[in-house]
């Protein structure tokens, strides 16, 4: 399951992308618009800054802005920057691979299934940019699970 940290990172960056301005946006403005606590948002944006996803400017007119155009920042990059691998197990990860201590990587059925799941997830997240997500929302495109019931 996606952590609250990643969810908030996505919300904050979608807000920056939707602003469509080159001027930095203050952390207070972002926090108020997204409903994220300022302190938690500062930690999240600091991590994203260190990963090159956002830039920050200090001072009275300071704040944050995207480092790249919104169509060049994928959901996968944001999630990796905020919490690490997309894979559920380290042995199924491409970017953060580590063998499990209790199994044979070559014959592990669990690893094979989780590697397939990771590949499918990565395809969607790598293929979805901030700009693409905003465009889908503007056009009211349904989510793939529209109409499904919980149960």
SSE diagram, text form:
Elements: H1 4-19, H2 27-34, H3 38-50, E1 54-57, E2 63-66, H4 75-83, H5 109-126, H6 130-138
Antiparallel strand pairs: 1-2
Task: Write structural notes for this entry.
This protein is mainly α and 151 residues long. The protein contains six helices and two strands; from the N terminus they run H-H-H-E-E-H-H-H. It has helices at 4-19, 27-34, 38-50, 75-83, 109-126, 130-138; strands spanning 54-57, 63-66. The model has no long low-confidence stretch (mean pLDDT 86).
Quick check: average pLDDT? 86
Q: How many β strands by DSSP?
A: 2
Return Rg in Å.
Answer: 18 Å
Low-confidence stretches: none
Characterize this entry briefly:
The chain has 151 residues and is mostly helical. It is 48% helix and 5% strand. The chain contains six helices and two strands; from the N terminus they run αααββααα.
């Amino acid at each position: 399951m996606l952590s609250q940290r990643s969810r908030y990172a996505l919300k904050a960056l979608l807000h920056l992308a939707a602003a469509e301005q080159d001027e930095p946006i203050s952390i207070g403005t972002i926090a108020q618009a997204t409903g994220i606590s300022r302190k938690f948002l500062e930690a999240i944006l600091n991590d994203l800054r260190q990963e090159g996803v956002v830039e920050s400017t200090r001072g009275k007119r300071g704040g944050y802005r995207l480092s790249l155009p919104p169509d060049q920042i994928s959901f996968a990059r944001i999630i990796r920057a905020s919490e690490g691998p997309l894979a559920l197990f380290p042995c199924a990860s491409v970017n953060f691979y580590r063998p499990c201590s209790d199994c044979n990587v070559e014959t592990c059925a669990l690893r094979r299934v989780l590697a397939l799941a990771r590949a499918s997830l990565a395809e969607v997240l790598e293929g979805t940019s901030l700009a693409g997500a905003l465009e889908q929302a503007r056009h009211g495109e349904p989510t793939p699970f529209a109409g499904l019931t919980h149960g």
